[in-house]
Amino acid sequence: MIDRIAQLRAQAGEAIAAAQDTEALDQLRVHYLGRKAELPLLLRDIGALPADQRGAVGRTANEARKAIEALISARSQEVQAQELSGSLLADALDVTLPGTPPRPVGRMHVIAATQRELEDIFLGLGFTVLEGPEVETVHYNFDALNHNPNHPARARTDTFYLRTEAGPGDSAGEREPSERLLLRTHTSPMQVRAMEAHPPPLYVVIPGRVYRPDSDATHTPQFHQVEGLAVDDDITLADLKGTLLAFARAIFGDQRDVRLRPHFFPFTEPSVEVDVSCFHCSGEGFLRDGSRCPLCKGEGWLEVLGAGEVDPDVYAHVPTTERNAPGYDPEKVQGFAWGMGVERIAMLRHGIPDLRLYYENDVRFLEQFGA
Q1: Which of 50, 82, 64 is nearest to 13 (CA)?
Q2: Residue 56: partners with Cβ closer than 8 Å, 6 or more residues away
């Protein structure tokens, strides 16, 4: 019986070494180690052997069983590795190819797209695009723009002030009032910065993010503005109206008109609110069915931005240097400025009811805009 066990062990070793796939190995496991296989049956019959043979036969049979199991396990790992390599070669995948179906590469956010469009319009009118810092000083954000020291916009409830460490000349950890830092509340600080860097004539638009502590359906703590500034000889309010009329027609349609209403801004004099004729009801205030226009609320006009002639006091904050000599002398130059909210323009164009939709990152909303 010991000879037969050795013979089965040798046969199993040869067969396992020759197996080429996991299916063949499973068949060999059943053939040599299954319940009805010869080797397990021999183990069951050991009790019928003479007592002096049982120990030797038992040890030999168990050693054969363990050896066959080890051979099958080792060969199984080799076969699985071979099968995996073959599968990878047969199913080679180029991971640089687009998926199926291919996903769109994405699109520009509606705010970014609107801002780019506004920039393009004013570039076509001869303006240059500038950018400025989002962290500003009180000097540029308020003082240089003719804001009264008691102006409500300076309050902590209307402006994000930044706490800074004490520097040379500071006391109790505070900077000089004009050098205190804040998150800019408008892009207007770049008016003075641009005039400091460039002599007249000057035609610039300044897009960018601005910050105010507001949050509701029509206000968010962060939003976007496009500021415009033109300084040259003999610039009048008529030039401002013509510039904004070109903008309105480029954005809202060739049939649009604009109107100027008196207003007040600290850094312009005179100051105006600018309205564009409603493109939903063609400025009539009512739709063809006689119902009130839901966009302009029956007014026929939509408020879009604030503007005005640059206040001469603003020029006084531009130092006279060799670079911009003879400087911005209010007796020699005039200018106009305007500021508009990018979100406001997009809301009017696309009928967006809530400013917060821009920032919720709902793809169903964002996919409605852009190419």
Answers
A1: 64
A2: 2
With a CB cutoff of 8 Å and minimum separation 6, the contacts of 231 are: 195, 200, 201, 202, 203, 310, 328, 333, 334, 335
For the chain, what are the domain ranges?
2-90, 110-366
| pLDDT tens by residue, 138-176 | 999 999 999 988 899 999 888 999 986 554 444 444 556
**Element of type H or E holding 228:** strand 222-232
Prediction pTM value: 0.67
- Which residue in 345, 371, 137 sits closest to 247, CA to CA? 345
Instruction: Kindly report the CATH number that applies to the domain delimited by 110-366.
Output: 3.30.930.10
Q: Tens digit of pLDDT for each residue in 296-319?
A: 889 999 999 999 999 999 998 888
Cis peptide upstream of residue 101 (ω within 30 degrees of 0): yes
Provide the Cα torsion 116, 188, 134, 120; round to 10°: 10
- Cβ–Cβ contacts within 10 Å for residue 24, how many? 15
